[in-house]
Amino acid sequence: MLVQSLITNIESAISNREHNNFSGNITNSEDLLNIENLKKLEDTFGGIFAFIAFHPKTDQLIGDYLQQGSISSDSGQHIFVLFTMDVPAFKPIKLNSGAFEKWITIDKSIHPSYQLIYSLFPNQSQPELPGILFISKFSSPDSPIFVSIGDMKTSNEVGSFFRKVFKTATKCFLETNGTTEKFTSKFGTSLAIEKIKYQHVGPTSMKEWLVKAFFIMKKNLGDIVTVVGLFK
After folding, report:
1. How far is residue 7's CA from residue 33's CA, in Å, rounded to a whole number?
2. The whole model's pTM is what?
3. What is the pLDDT of residues 92-120, one digit of tens each?
4. DSSP-assigned letters across all residues of 51-89
5. How far apart are CA 232 and CA 230, in angstroms?
6. Residue 4, helix vs strand vs coil
7. Which of 11, 7, 29, 28 is nearest to 20 (CA)?
């Protein structure tokens, strides 16, 4: 399975090609990640976003699941899946058994993937990690939902959980026509009915979160990536 940077996907969604020079230069991420460009990403994809937060050592089963290569089909055409890598991926790179190794010894409390989730709950109890952050919009205020994955025994169990949650998210997205407030409400209600542990994030600017996320990635020589082919 090949993955590439979210930056590359944003550039692909931008009609004005003058932004191509941003590739590999995350110091300019705030300029690239403006509202207009994020809106173009959203319009081009036409779905919701899911950021998978996990530690490559303590959450190894999730890494194993990702390496199996089924995440694109499991998530479907309406969910844009994101996760962190320990290397830049401005060009497609293969996700193999050596993926995530550079960050494997980083303490959970400061692991880049976990940091991105902790930053969303500064005045709230921290959610149970690992998990999946569902984001309706980056270009406008949003109230994301964080779904905790819980204790899984095998990568097959992880896969079953992901498919179940992705199916629920897709159903809610389609039934609410992607309207942020309606999707968030319906998705939360559906998760509660299915007895899946989740936590609301208060209204926040996901644009600001994304900019901070890329600065954290640069500091740790990593990247936020998605599956090649997942982006239309």
Report:
1. 9
2. 0.92
3. 999 987 888 899 898 988 899 999 999 99
4. EEE--TTTTHHHHHHHHHT-HHHHH-TTEEEEEEESS--
5. 6
6. strand
7. 11
